[in-house]
Design brief:
The chain is of the alpha+beta class. The chain contains five helices and eleven strands, in the order ββββαααββββαββαβ. The strands form four sheets. A five-stranded antiparallel sheet has the order 8-7-6-5-11, covered by helices on one side. A two-stranded antiparallel ribbon has the order 1-2. The protein has a two-stranded antiparallel sheet with strand order 3-4. Strand 9 and strand 10 form a beta hairpin. It binds zinc ion.
Length: about 150
């Protein structure tokens, strides 16, 4: 019989220093600042890498400024480049962003009609032209919530 609790270690969060439970792989989300402890993110400290949506260095800066670890649109695109399947919410609606075979697709998460999705040839085009309800995504990004890696629903 294994002792569940024994599999966890308590370490100081790399971003805020508060104690956080991590698993055998050193992974765990900080309840205080939201940073996911991750060796990869510390190693590539200027990159956005799963499971965090901002780089380690940016997370430290945001935390010092008392700001949430919220990704900019550029951070989100870096996450998309890394992970290929992303999601975010705007005015209570969940959207999906997919990148495959050099096409970036944006649409409401559960929309099955391909004609209702937007398609972009590259990240820059996505950044400049993606829109929601007639507004450019880049202009409403501050009001976007839960921008994150896509999870299975
Ligand atoms: Zn923390």
């Amino acid at each position: 019989m294994s002792d569940y609790k024994a599999k966890f270690t308590v370490i100081p969060c790399a971003v805020c220093g508060q104690l956080v439970d991590v698993d055998n792989f050193g992974q765990g989300k900080c309840k205080h600042c939201g940073w996911h402890q991750s060796e990869i993110c510390l190693e590539y400290s200027d990159m956005v890498a799963y499971p965090n949506m901002v780089s380690f260095n940016k997370a430290k800066t945001l935390y010092k400024q008392g700001l949430p670890l919220k990704p900019s649109l550029d951070d989100f695109i870096e996450g998309l480049d890394f992970y290929k399947e992303m999601e975010f919410e705007y005015l209570g609606v969940l959207y999906g962003v997919l990148w495959s075979r050099n096409i970036i697709e944006l649409g409401e998460y559960f929309e099955k009609d391909p004609a209702k999705w937007q398609y972009f040839d590259n990240f820059e085009e996505f950044k400049q032209k993606a829109y929601i309800g007639g507004k450019l995504l880049k202009d409403i990004w501050d009001d976007v919530t839960n921008a994150d890696y896509m999870i299975c629903r």
